[in-house]
Amino acid sequence: MVEKFIPKELNITENAVSKVKQLISKENNVKLSLRVFVTGGGCSGFQYGFKLDDKPENDDTVLSENNVSVLIDSLSIQYIMGSTLDYVENLEGSKFIIENPNATTTCGCGASFSI
Fold it and tell me: Does residue 108 have a pLDDT over 60?
């Protein structure tokens, strides 16, 4: 029997989980989750946003990875479905990034994209 492939809404790396845990610990609020969202703007049309949030909305997709929750609103989920959330530290600085297989173009810094 062949199992049906069901893509995850968002894959979350261990680096991202570790950074979210650090941020939550620093804020001293275990109710916090990382909210990942998409807004219009940036040089490619859409841009990713990240913030800590302690109030999930009714229409949020709530993902859990290694005791960390990630919230995605109902409008943003369509743009990041099947993507990977990572946290990187390099010469450009440290930041959360989204590796999005649905993006047709991205800007040089990786902060904006188009579909």
Answer: no
